[in-house]
Design a protein that fits this description.
This protein is an alpha/beta fold and 432 residues long. Helix content is 34%, strand content 15%. The protein has a six-stranded parallel beta sheet, with helices on both faces. A six-stranded parallel beta sheet has the order 7-8-9-10-11-12. The relative contact order is 0.11.
């Protein structure tokens, strides 16, 4: 039997797929993490396609089983693959964020839906499939982090991706932000430190990205892991929350273990907006102090902002590029508020009739899919693109790069490359 594994990608989405994508597109771990879950010897051939940089060919050969994982914005592309391979007699399995949030919808296009993590469900399904008794749904959320296999990175392509390996120590998050889909899939469960260190050693790299939603959430665990990382002499970056910038002991330990950058979801400069979506840290007047504190420990900051909260006004959003300048961020990113299925925000907006479309292809953080309070959806889209354009003028790109804590070493070119990559992200090519 033959198996094809696909990470579906919205064929119309152009951001993160342009000529500068290798400067800012992180390597995906999805298929690499799923591959080792396939029992050895179960298939004579396993092919893997990451549609971000590869094409799905329906007729190159016949596959007995097609496994497709996808996010909401790629749902329609995934459904097209399902329908085409079904015509050719393949058995179809779907999983991922969208399948976990809307299993009934996804089930209309496939034979089996896997909800939640795959560590238990995938091997169980494969065993049932080989025995001829596959079930229509599998759902096992109680996965122990100690049992996570090392991703099969050699089985996936890194074409058009940043050539820095990525990994996770704790893929869950304990926060309850209304708009975040993270809790739809994962629980907070740190991996054994020895497992993390062994995986880092196996990568034979001096640069590393952690995908953990908040690397420092479990402070005791983070301190112990960073102490164990010191002898490896690697440089790394991760996600953090704003309160990281008040813990000088933690920041210094991070720097000494090789941390040189953190991505922080600042989200808004309006405290009412942060309160409305359940952000734990809401003291926007402290952002400048926090960023300065992090910089004082030699760590760069990528600040992320979301546009479209109910308290947002046109004037506030249009002022973002200038206000970001004053914060002194090294990189900045912007997104349109997107109520993903499975989140409390989606449930609220659907209940209140505020969703304007369920065309999943535009649920990509670049398009307003709901009715904002203080402007039209069309105006929010316009402002979003204007903010990106102004924040990534050449003057601002160069100022951010050469005032960064990284400016005194060769890694400043990584920062410059990331800023240039975001400048040419291409969000204006997908505007409905």
């Amino acid at each position: 039997m033959k198996l094809l594994m696909i990470h579906a990608w919205n064929s119309e989405e152009t951001s993160y797929r342009g000529k500068f994508s290798n400067l800012l597109s992180y390597p995906s771990l999805t298929l690499a993490a799923l591959y080792p879950l396939i029992p050895e010897g179960a298939f004579e051939k396993i092919d893997v396609v990451d549609e971000n940089s590869q094409r799905v060919d329906y007729d190159s050969e016949h596959y007995d089983l097609i496994m497709i994982t996808f996010e909401t914005s790629s749902a329609f592309s995934a459904y097209r693959h399902c329908d085409e391979f079904r015509k050719r007699g393949s058995y179809i399995v779907c999983g991922g964020y969208h399948a976990t949030a809307l299993p009934d919808e996804v089930a209309e296009h496939c034979d089996t839906v896997i909800m939640g993590p795959g560590e238990i469900s995938v091997p169980e399904f494969i065993g049932d499939f080989i025995a001829g008794t596959p079930k229509p749904r599998y759902c096992n959320f109680n996965v122990c982090a100690a049992e996570f296999p090392i991703p099969a990175r050699d089985k996936i392509t890194n074409r058009k991706k940043l050539k820095i390996p990525a990994m996770t120590a704790n893929r869950g998050c304990g926060n309850v932000c209304k708009y975040c889909s993270m809790r739809t899939m994962w629980k907070s469960d740190p991996r054994p430190i020895e497992n993390v260190i062994n995986e880092i050693r196996s990568l034979k790299t001096k640069l590393l990205i952690f995908y953990d939603p908040n690397f420092f959430a479990d402070r005791e665990y983070a301190m112990a892991l960073m102490e164990a990382m010191k002898p490896l002499k690697i440089l790394w970056a991760s996600n953090a929350t704003a309160d990281f910038g008040y813990d000088h002991e933690l920041m210094q330990a991070a720097y000494e273990s090789g941390c040189r950058g953190v991505l922080i979801g600042l989200e808004s400069l309006n405290q009412s907006s942060l309160k409305s979506v359940g952000k734990r840290f809401r003291e926007t007047d402290k952002y400048k102090e926090i960023i300065d504190n992090i910089h004082s420990h030699g760590i760069a900051v990528n600040g992320c902002f979301v546009l479209g909260f109910d308290s947002d006004t046109e004037e506030e959003l249009l002022a973002l590029p200038e206000r970001v300048d004053r914060l002194g961020l090294d990189i900045c990113r912007f997104a349109v508020l997107t109520p993903y299925p499975g989140t409390r925000l989606f449930t609220e907006y659907e209940r209140d009739g505020r969703l304007t479309t369920k065309d999943w292809s535009v649920y990509n953080q670049h398009n307003a899919v709901f009715r904002p309070t203080n402007m039209t959806a069309e105006r929010l889209n316009e402002i979003y693109r204007q903010v990106w354009k102004e924040a990534y003028s050449w003057k601002r790109v160069l100022r951010r790069t050469f005032t960064s804590p990284w400016r005194k070493n060769a890694y400043v070119f990584i920062l410059l490359g990331a800023n240039i990559g975001f400048k040419y992200l291409g969000i204006d090519k997908k505007y409905r």
